[in-house]
Write a structure and sequence with these properties.
The structure holds 2 protein chains of 2 kinds.
Chain A (H helix, E strand, L loop, with lengths): L2 H11 L4 E4 L6 H10 L6 E4 L3 H13 L4 E5 L1 H17 L3 E9 L5 E5 L4 H6 L8 E3 L4 H18 L2 E7 H5 L24 H6 L36 E3 L13 H17 L1 H4 L2 E4 L6 E6 L2 H14 L4 E6 L1 E3 L3 H10 L2 E6 L5 H9 L3 E5 L8 H12 L1
Chain B lengths: L30 H15 L6 E5 L7 H4 L3 E4 L5 H11 L4 E7 H7 L1 H10 L4 E6 L34 H8 L3 E6 L3 H12 L5 E6 L15 H11 E3 L20 E8 L15
Parallel strand pairs in B: 1-2, 1-3, 3-4, 4-6, 5-6, 7-8
Antiparallel strand pairs in B: 5-8
Helix pairs in contact in B: 1-7, 4-5, 5-6
The chains are: A alpha/beta, B alpha/beta.
Chain lengths: 385, 278
């Protein structure tokens, strides 16, 4: 099956029961597949009026307890930046698939791109941190969709699947494991029943009426337990800066505390969120960094260079955000040069430059066609000279 | 000397977060009146409190969610309706009410409003219409009458406003009514009524905004606007006024038509279910 269909099947396997989205090439096959599949499993498929509403409806469904997702591409992704911020601020888990195409604006609807990487990192206003994964095959698109739901639920963050048109439309063999082999990480839930809390109400002092505090952090992972609408916890969620009760608190102290925690939450759990794959890096003096469909070409180029005796290896980013900063710094200790191949005019290369402090050769393309192995090989050989 | 009566609890404390008082609204504002009607309708509804959920957008009315002792969501500007739809579809046992202002629901959220009405989504929408953007200090919006002044329409508003009942009736809502904040019984009764009805309900509540709209349009205070409502409100019965005539202009001595304009029972949106393929 193709990557988009694999993503949809990954969502079903992960127990996704809600999709809200708007058709857009090259992600439409995800919506089409889920329009057929969700009604079979008692889930809801809703085609929304636009992408603003799409992410909003997904957040509402997730706030009521559903595993919920949307899928889009560049133009729709831009519209979703608004509610991506809401998801971060309200800590509502959700999965957002961006099957990247040639951009900016309408760009190349049917052709690939990888230029939404920095938009994912910085696109919505404010300081924030989230998780993003870039599959390089339909099988991995399936696997990462399952992981995306797990990470979103476990850490109460939005998770972005930064696929590209090549992977979305590529047809390869996809193995769907039996249901019992699908790993599931659950949301942290309140320890006490709402009735127990109500009985404490009179005993509690001012400012703490004994009710559940939806943003009170109890554990080192900085993830507050999540109560859903309709369970009796009388929760309040606001996109305004808020305290542990969820109430608006317009103070610099609360704001500093909240925004820092939201970022630290991702940093502190980064080891569990990050995924990378390494090829021939043990003795590599040249390190190639690539992700998504471009990593397929990069692997070929690295193999060819190895055959020519060049000590080169590949760091494939499976998760893009949070970035593997420590690993990059380690590699900078052993490597003389870095090559970054990506279907944009230099986005992740900036991150590599920042961390490696070594010469970085970029193999860039604005998008529209997959980068073949040849220019990557050329860059490796140049670096080796 | 009359006896001093001290009560520990106001009857509405069950549904209002009294610890959040005082509220942010200006003197003479009508939003609190409408919120009180909603609170009373909830208590009278017989529906367990934990099943009532309120969703608001941004703006003065958007703050209602934060004052209701319910599961409450204060979302992004204009997106209260899609957020509410998500809640309702993921948990159909919820009674989901969107409480927001005209700028939020009709301007930036206008697309969601008409599509939710078209789909006849089973949510209830209370739209406080104060003819301007109050939170930001009195700018013109999609309900500002033509010619009315606003901080962004210093020479008068050149645009025609939306006639909301007409719009909602055409878009497909099951229930459409309009009242003002002087019609507290009718507002409370209609909110209670739509709790018992299925499908998309839209209640427009005209509310004074003396600090935002009033100051630019020679309406001295909230009380004066309430007087205008009382003097000029005309009850529409059985469609004796055409829907396209339901436009409002507070500044002219013309009727403000109020009442229930649409009350029908079309089946609401229901997600499709499929037989599992063997």
């Amino acid at each position: 099956m193709n990557g988009d269909h694999a993503c949809a099947e990954g969502a079903i396997a992960a127990g996704c029961s809600f999709f809200g989205g708007y058709p857009i090439t090259p992600s439409t096959e995800i919506a089409e597949r889920l329009a057929r599949r969700l009604p079979e499993v008692g889930g809801v498929f809703l085609q929304m009026e636009d992408e603003l509403g799409s992410l909003a409806v997904v957040l509402g469904a997730s706030a009521a307890g559903a595993r919920a997702m949307t899928a889009t591409s560049g133009p729709g992704y831009s519209l979703m930046m608004e509610n991506l911020g809401l998801a971060l601020m309200l800590e509502i888990p959700c999965v957002l698939v961006d099957v990247q195409r040639g951009s900016p604006s309408t760009g190349l609807p049917t052709m690939p791109g990888q230029s939404d990487v920095m938009q994912t990192r910085w696109g919505t206003h404010g300081d924030f941190a989230l998780a993003a994964y870039a599959p390089w095959s339909p099988q991995e698109f399936f696997d990462l969709t399952v992981l995306a739901f797990n990470v979103a639920d476990r850490y109460r963050i939005p998770v972005v699947l930064l696929a590209d048109e090549v992977v979305g439309h590529m047809v390869e063999r996809v193995v769907i494991p039996p249901a019992e082999q699908i790993e599931r990480w659950e949301r942290k839930r309140p320890h006490r029943q709402p009735a127990e809390m109500a009985s404490n109400e009179t005993a509690a002092g001012p400012g703490n009426n004994g009710s559940f505090q939806p943003f009170l952090v109890e554990d080192d992972d900085l993830v507050p337990p999540m109560a859903h609408a309709g369970e009796g916890y009388t929760i309040h969620y606001t996109g305004l800066t808020h305290d542990e009760h969820g109430y608006p608190d317009m103070s610099a102290e609360t704001h500093q505390c909240l925004v820092t925690r939201l970022i630290e939450k991702v940093q502190r759990n980064a080891a569990k969120i990050r995924r990378t794959e390494e090829y021939f890096l043990e003795d590599a003096r040249i390190v190639v960094v690539a992700y998504g469909c471009t990593a397929r070409s990069a692997r070929r180029a690295v193999r060819q260079a190895r055959q020519q005796g060049v000590p080169v290896g590949l760091l494939r980013l499976i998760s893009i955000w949070p970035f593997p900063e420590e690993r990059l710094r380690e590699l900078a200790g052993q490597a003389d040069a870095f090559v970054v191949a990506e279907m944009n005019l230099g986005q992740i290369s900036l991150e590599v430059e920042r961390l490696a402090r070594r010469p970085v050769r970029g193999v860039f393309h604005a998008g529209g066609a997959m980068i073949p192995p040849e220019p990557i090989l050329e860059a490796i050989l140049e670096a080796a000279r | 000397m009359s006896p001093v009566i001290v009560v520990d609890q106001h009857p509405l404390d069950k549904v209002i977060r009294s610890e959040r008082m005082p509220h942010i609204w200006c003197p003479g504002c009508g939003i609190g009146i409408a919120m009180r009607c909603y609170a009373q309708a909830i208590l009278d509804s017989g529906i367990p409190l934990e099943k009532h959920v309120i969703v608001s957008g941004i703006g003065c009315t958007g703050r209602v969610a934060g004052y209701m002792k319910l599961d409450s969501y204060h979302t992004t500007h204009g997106r209260a309706i899609p957020f509410a739809i998500g809640l309702k579809l993921a948990n159909p046992s919820l009674m989901v009410t969107v409480f927001s202002g005209d700028g939020d629901l009709v301007s930036i959220g206008g697309n969601h409003l008409i599509h939710a009405a078209r789909r006849n989504m089973d949510i209830k929408v209370v739209c406080i219409n104060n003819f301007n953007y109050g939170m930001t200090g009195g700018q013109a919006g999609p309900t500002t009458p033509k010619g009315a002044r606003a901080t962004t329409a210093p020479y008068g508003n050149p645009e025609l406003p939306f006639n909301l009942p007409y719009l909602m009736a055409a878009a497909g809502a099951n229930f459409v009514s309009r009242w003002t904040t002087i019609h507290i019984r009718q507002v409370k009764d209609d909110i209670g009524y739509v709790f018992q009805r299925r499908g998309f309900a839209f209640l427009e509540v005209l509310a004074p905004c003396p600090v935002g709209f009033g100051k630019s349009n020679n309406i001295e205070d909230g009380l004066e606007e309430m007087m205008l409502y009382r003097q000029r409100s005309v009850l529409v019965r059985d469609g004796d006024v055409r829907a396209d005539e339901l436009v409002i202009d507070l500044r002219e001595n013309v009727p403000i038509y109020v009442g229930r304009f649409v009350d029908r029972d079309r089946p609401p949106y229901q997600p499709m279910q499929a037989e599992v393929r063997s």
